[in-house]
Write a structure and sequence with these properties.
This protein has ten helices and ten strands. The strands form two sheets. Strands 1, 2, 3, 5, 6, 7, 8 and 9 form an eight-stranded mixed sheet that branches. A two-stranded parallel sheet has the order 4-10. With 370 residues, the protein is of the alpha/beta class. Keywords: Autophagy, Cytoplasm, Hydrolase, Protease, Protein transport, Thiol protease, Transport. It catalyses: [protein]-C-terminal L-amino acid-glycyl-phosphatidylethanolamide + H2O = [protein]-C-terminal L-amino acid-glycine + a 1,2-diacyl-sn-glycero-3-phosphoethanolamine.
Length: 370
């Protein structure tokens, strides 16, 4: 995959019974500017991505059967991974980028981190704020390319390297929704204490096998009608519709059980139900209907995810959209953005001026049998 650094950021998450919450997601498909234009336009929001390296699907040394569902384990654990990152200078470089010449505030999924370093006292306060930002950023869940899983359908493919980045990005966004629903936006992942079992339960929802409800296997199966196929890259519209189909099918399978997805999901579409483009329009009646369907008519409103598939340009993002995209990260309900350029998707979780913070799925992880 060209155009993005081949680095990774990783995390995990969890789930429980529905609580009163509302979540939204914006999922545009967009392109990067050419190098000669990057300093001339606000489109640099997409051409100035940067990330730091943490670890994904961390090690959990519990003897439960959950360990056997395809979640990747790292022997060094979270603490060792963070130490390695710090020692390697990634965090130092991240801080240098954040503290550039503008000293602008950071918005990370609806949370603001105020940056100021004009005097020694403010510099110390900024250092603490950056530590809080780093903890928040590293608590997000990263899902990456995998190799060594069971073949997907009849494709004989046992890896999604080179084509599965949009699927992996979408798994990260849904994982973030479940994380917020279960623990709230203020939750941060512990690097010392044993992780909450609910957190681990959510991780296992995204294992790489048909037994995991939201695996790449099941997503591709649900998305056949929208052109999803192993080995082929997919756009945001098809990805959103595939999640809608998958969530609905899992709900039908678990009529008498606790559903693994504790909220309604609604795709905001345009003309012809989004099949032929058009500006997306939120129809309150349709959203209300989705909530009623989810609750089986028991309540009028339930927790809900709004997915908004958009194409914001062909060769590059139209600069007129940048302010609106930036503004979405100030929403308390923000789940971020899936996108990048055609053929290379990332999960964008924050902005600082014209720079974007993202989690990059373009690292290959070996599936563990443990």
């Amino acid at each position: 995959m060209k155009g993005f650094p081949e680095k990774v950021v990783t995390s995990n998450f969890c789930l429980k019974a529905p609580t009163k919450s509302s979540t939204t997601a914006v999922t545009p498909d967009c392109s990067e500017q050419s190098p000669s234009e990057r300093k001339l336009s606000r489109v640099s929001l997409w051409s100035s991505f940067f990330s730091s390296a943490f670890s994904v699907f961390e090690s959990h040394r519990e003897s439960s059967t959950c360990e056997k569902k395809g979640v990747h384990h790292r022997g060094n654990g979270w603490t060792s991974a963070v130490k390695k990152v710090v020692a390697g200078g990634s965090m130092r470089r991240l801080h240098e980028r954040v503290l550039g010449s503008t000293k602008s505030d950071i918005w990370l999924l609806g949370t603001c981190y105020k940056i100021s370093a004009d005097c020694p006292a403010e510099a110390e306060a900024t250092s603490n704020i950056l530590a809080e930002f780093t903890h928040d950023f590293s608590s997000r869940i990263l899902v990456t390319y995998r190799k060594g899983f069971d073949a997907i359908g009849d494709s004989k493919l046992t890896s999604d390297v080179g084509w599965g980045c949009m699927v992996r990005s979408s798994q990260m966004l849904i994982a973030q929704a479940l994380l917020c629903h279960q623990f709230g936006r203020s939750w941060r992942r512990s690097s010392v204490k044993p992780q909450d079992q609910d957190y681990i339960t959510i991780l296992h929802l995204f294992g790489d096998s048909e037994a995991s409800p939201f695996s790449i296997h099941n997503l591709l199966l649900a998305g056949k009608a929208y052109g999803l196929a192993a080995g082929s890259w997919v756009g945001p519209y098809a990805m959103c519709r595939s999640w809608e189909t998958l969530v609905r099918s899992k709900r039908e399978e678990t009529v008498h059980e606790l559903h693994p997805f504790p909220m309604a999901l609604y795709v905001v579409s345009g003309d012809e139900n989004g099949e032929r483009g058009g500006a997306p329009v939120v129809c309150i009646e349709d959203v209300h209907r989705s909530c009623l369907e989810f609750s089986k008519g028991q309540v009028d409103w339930t927790p809900i995810i709004l997915l908004v598939p958009l194409v914001l340009g062909l060769d590059k993002v139209n600069p007129r959209y940048i302010p609106s995209l930036q503004a979405t990260f100030t929403f308390p309900q923000s789940l971020g953005i899936l996108g990048g350029k055609p053929g290379a998707s990332t999960y964008i979780v924050g902005v600082q001026d014209d720079n974007a913070f993202y989690l990059d799925p373009h690292e290959v992880q070996q599936v563990s049998d443990n």
